[in-house]
Amino acid sequence: MRTQFCINRFDGGKISVVDKINSNDSRDEVLDLDRVPIYLELPPNVVSLPPVRTKAQALPCHELLWENFERLCVRLACLDGDIDHCRLYGTRGQKQHGIDLYARGKSSDKYRAYQCKRYERFTSADITDAVKRFREGKWFKRCSHFFLCTSVSAVETQLADEFECQRDALHEAGIKFFIWDGEEISKQLKMKPEIVDDFFGRAWVNEFCGPDSLTNRERMDGSRTTNFRREMREFYAALIEQLDPGIPIRPTQGRRRIPLAAC
Length: 263
Known about the structure:
Layout: E1 3-6, E2 19-22, E3 30-31, H1 66-78, E4 83-88, E5 101-105, E6 111-117, H2 124-136, E7 143-150, H3 157-172, E8 176-180, H4 182-189, H5 193-200, H6 202-209, H7 222-243
Parallel strand pairs: 6-7, 7-8
Antiparallel strand pairs: 1-2, 1-3, 4-5, 5-6
């Protein structure tokens, strides 16, 4: 007598416990040990869905230094294909007439003015004050666009209401008014991994734009560039000190003596 096994099928393709039976027994399906049904070796016809993982949608613009936030706004302004040139206007402490940078278009003699505000908290009064200072400055009559750039979000209802009010008022003067807040800046940079790499670093490129977004993975990000410049500055300072050690002078209080290297 040859020992065989029986496999009873149920709905949905599920299989019950295998029963040992005799060869002369009649069941739903009798199989030899060496003849396993092909459907038992097939992969499952239903696979699990991959986990949902949403990339970061906002960059930490509020963590940038004030100078770097201004430089970021210059890079953003230059993304417009109609811009001929864009420059910072003035230095800290100078009177800037309500703007921090300006740009000139290729198709118009009018300028675009930008005011950059790196605030921890942004209020409707800040919008009112920014527009007021712009109106009182010498650039008001020379501009066709005014951009208020802030590192934080400006989506609160009172901010949106004040923006629309000031937008209508400037529109009557022939000037278009825009607010670039943290969310708008992030939206513009979503497809600009090189700029994200320069200002926020490689980790944020991977998290915000995606690990495959950079075409040149060998480029240095902002952090590595800063370290490279620091190391090169130290290298050349040491090299120049070796090549040109200076002349011996009488040491005075608070002044380091410059030795003359032996020839």
